[in-house]
Amino acid sequence: xxxxxxxxxxxxxxxxxxxxxxxxxxxxxxxxxxxxxxxxxxxxxxxxxxxxxxxxxxxxxxxxxxxxxxxxxxxxxxxxxxxxxxxxxxxxxxxxxxxxxxxxxxxxxxxxxxxxxxxxxxxxxxxxxxxxxxxxxxxxxxxxxxxxxxxxxxxxxxxxxxxxxxxxxxxxxxxxxxxxxxxxxxxxxxxxxxxxxxxxxxxxxxxxxxxxxxxxxxxxxxxxxxxxxxxxxxxxxxxxxxxxxxxxxxxxxxxxxxxxxxxxxxxxxxxxxxxxxxxxxxxxxxxxxxxxxxxxxxxxxxxxxxxxxxxxxxxxxx
Length: 318
Known about the structure:
alpha/beta; TIM Barrel; six-stranded parallel beta sheet; two-stranded parallel ribbon; 9 helices; 8 strands; disordered N terminus
């Protein structure tokens, strides 16, 4: 995993936002660049070749948006989280070996990803679980330390990703962008997506993948207001449904501050019809403070219990 961005990088990212989108808000942290799949995906030694998951996973009920971005689950972890989530991903195209035969029976959907240019699309097409319904695109390609693709390069490679989705009948989510304050193809995720779509006019993108990390303070009594501002900018500038595939407050001084942010963020995400899915970062993490949903094996933290228990959209039948 990469380290969280420094304060200077975070402020730079927010200055880009102010310049390019017209939104006015305090420097709130643009969050960490996320995750190398070799770090996120657990050990697969001894895994059998071929498909990585069971057939027949039931699709999530309408309105069931809540998920988790995490790649080190045990069966007990998944059991604990399954009480409140409908999906998960691990920055890879096969589920964690230890839960490959477990997640579907718990009613949790696995979503594969084509992390970057080093991922062979033929492997994804062959080995992603047959129960998969959606394919996630490149992970933070605007970061040098992540998928590391310019918008033009991502667009040039997109037909290969789309071919997998077409062959498998999968919904296709765009490259997942994030603010980048240093070591970037483009620090502004909105501008990156504009360039990507301009370079790929005939490409299929069914939903927009985004990451948002902001400060906990918020404004006007809402701890998640800066996240909401960013999401609404995506909604104004693009027409697709949104998959918020990583989010958290990145300057929490305590679990209580993180929990207050989570409560306000989830309330908004559940109520906004443009938000199709969202995933908290992470089950356990060492690069963002006080975000862990899981403690000991199969044990929810207080934050994890809150995430499981927070109200869902009324249409969501769990």
